[in-house]
Amino acid sequence: MPHIYTADCTKCFALCCVVPAFAASSDFAVDKPARTPCRNIQQDFRCGIHTQLRQSGFRGCTVYDCFGAGQKVSQVTFGGRDWREAPETARRMFDVFPVMRDLHELLRYLTEAHALRAARPIRAELARALEETERLTHQDPEALAATDVAAVRQAVNPLLLRASELARAGLGGRKKERRGADLIGARLRGADLRGASLRGALLIGADLRGADLRTADLIGADLRGADLRGADLTGALFLVQSQLDAAKGDGSTVLPPSLARPAHW
Questions:
Q1: pTM of the predicted model as reported, rounded to 2 decimal places
Q2: Phi first, then psi: what are they for 114, rounded to 5°?
Q3: How confident is the model at residue 170 (pLDDT cuts 50, 70, 90)?
Q4: What angle in degrees, to the nearest 10, is found between the helix axes of 149-169 and 90-115?
């Protein structure tokens, strides 16, 4: 995927460490209210325990992805003015960040859909959606904060769904429709899920060892704790790095070339 939709924390004012709230749990060692800086942020906006997040009880931080929204807000929307040196920007910057994050996620999916060979029949429509969504990200802070992301998503989703259907149609055979399915802890070891729709499926803790997930649609699927050891994810649609980071796997897990094998596997 284009670098612009990949987080670059060196160009961000630690917005993901300030804006969201989190509660003490297995994912976070402490409580943190929304719009309050995490105690681990250093003066240069970097995380003081970045290399030890999992060991320090901040596993939730390791599976968060802003899709490049942090640096866009920091360097483009606010022109490099940070909320510490320019505190008058803080409130609006914190308003804008979650909107930008959602728009960048949609851009990440639209970019992938546009690149799919099978999506050629709707490529012009995808290009227009990409252009319009990108335009929204360049609005001024006030307009960005007022953007109705739900409406944008509602307009984009049918295109993403159509692109998925076109990509999976070439596989032949009957496709498994498990959209939004509750598959928490499911025993799917060795399952043939080629071309399956697992959009928004709850696969928390599912046993997917050795499963065939080639060209499966995984947009929005919750893979926290899912066991992907030996699974084949070749050509998986709309799979993002944070989903892999939340799952379990090993050297035998086959990944799409655009994604990295998580360091903790």
A1: 0.93
A2: -60, -30
A3: confident
A4: 20
